[in-house]
Amino acid sequence: MLTTSLLLSMLPLALSSPLIPRNDDGPTFFGAIAARSTAPFHLQSINANGQSFWIGKDTATYCPLQPQSQCPTGNQTVFAASGGGASLDTVVPGGQQVYVAPNGKLSYTIAHSAYIPPGSAVQTFTATFPTNDDNTLGSFSFQGLGGNSFLACPSHKVDSEEGPFPYQVFVDVTALSDQDVPSGSKADCLGFGAVIAKYDGAPVWQYT
User: Fold this and answer.
1) How far apart are CA 16 and CA 4, in angstroms?
2) By the 8 A CB rule, do 208 and 97 touch?
3) What is the Cα–Cα distance from 150 to 169, expressed in whole angstroms?
4) What residues contact residue 91 under an 8 Å CB cut-off, 6+ apart?
5) 9-65: per-residue pLDDT in tens?
6) d(Cα 135, Cα 25) in Å, to the nearest integer?
7) Distances (CA, A) of 24 to 13, 15, 92
């Protein structure tokens, strides 16, 4: 059985980063992993890359400041949840909002742009922790557009020569179709739970 300490150790949180002040009345900051005991991606991190979220693909960040020593030291994918909405933990002016596209793709806005495709959902995200203990694991979920479960959709068929990784994260919305997912068949996608742990380290400048 997985213990809390073991699962926490698997979360790619930059706990060694310099701590930054967090407002107790502000958003909840957390990192997330995908949990499905029989899946190839079990307990791997959920990372932001290319305005989408992936399992098995590195976090993609950018900082324009020179020298680079002026940049924030965060390098992991960290979410911020508040009031039913979700965003990413960034310094870039305007921030970067998390949303579910009409086709179910879990997405985030490009830096310096508030554009979100019409019909997307920006609310009904929930980050829940059973206690106030900072070491307590919680869950991240979404309910809307006819869906209520995160899906990990392989880039290729599981039995293909290329292998299934990386997996792209979707929600099982009503409008999700075969043409929306990387493998060309939504039957290849696997539902999973998003397990989260609180984060109080440094942010990134922006995700790309």
Assistant:
1) 19
2) no
3) 7
4) 72, 203, 204, 205, 206
5) 545 443 333 334 455 568 999 999 999 999 999 999 999 999 999 999 999 999 999
6) 19
7) 20, 19, 21
Q: Which amino acid is at 127?
A: A
pTM, 2 dp:
0.89
| Helix (DSSP H) and strand (DSSP E) numbers for the chain | 1, 14
Token pair recorded at residue 55: 């399992």
For 60-154, list the strands marked E by DSSP: 61-62, 79-82, 85-88, 97-100, 106-108, 125-128, 138-142, 150-154
Helix (H) or strand (E) holding 5: helix 4-10
| In the block, residue with structure tokens 């911020």 | 80
pLDDT of residue 132: 77
pLDDT-based confidence at residue 157 (cuts at 50, 70, 90): confident
Closest CA to 31 of 40, 16, 44, 20: 44
68, two tokens: 């680079």
pLDDT (tens digit per residue) in 101-135: 999 999 999 999 999 999 999 999 999 998 877 78
Given phi > 0 = left and psi -120 to 50 = alpha, else beta, which region is 68?
A: alpha
CA 194/CA 192 separation, integer angstroms: 7
